[in-house]
Predict the 3D structure of the following.
Amino acid sequence: MPNHITIAPRIETDRLILREFQLDDFDAYAAMSADPVVARFTGGLMEDRAVAWEKFCRSPGWWSLLGYGLWIVEDKDSGRFAGNVGFGNFERGIDPPLPDIPEGAWVMDRWSHGKGYAHEAMTAALDWCDSEIGGGQSCIIDPANAPSLKLADKLGFREVRRADFKGGQTIIFERATA
C-alpha cells in the first residue's frame, strides 16, 4: 500500500508544474474534454459539462483513497492549463481485468500537442510513482492513437495483450518499476 498521500504533491519540471486539481481548473478541463481532437481517443465522445465534472472530481478522491491520482499540468511560463497526467483506478470492464497497479493516463489540451509536454509530465509522474508506489504501472491505448503509442514506448511501457473495450480494440501495456 502506498504512503497515505491525500493530495497531489507539487512537481516541477523545466517547463511544467504538476499540481493538485483546483476548482478554477474546471472550465479549461471541460473545454479540453469537449474538444473533438482531444476526445477522439478518450472515449470518442465529446463530453458535456456534467460528465466532465464527474471525471474532474474523481482525481482528488483517488489521492485521498489510493495515495495516487492525476495532476493538473500547467505551463510554467504562462500559467496556462495544458492537460492532466498521472494514475488512476478506472475500474474498466476489461476481461481479464487490468493488473492491480496504478493505470497511467495522460490527456493534453490541443494547444500543447507536439511540444513534448506529455512526455515531460509523464516522466516526472512516473519517477514519482516509481519512488512512492513502486510495483509498475499499466495503461491502455487505442491502436489508432499513434502519438500515445509512441509516447508509451518512450516511457518504457510494453504491450502485453489486446482486448475488446467499449466496442473496439484497445492495447494493454505494462511498465516495470525502473
In short: Residues 18 and 73 are 5 Å apart (CA to CA).
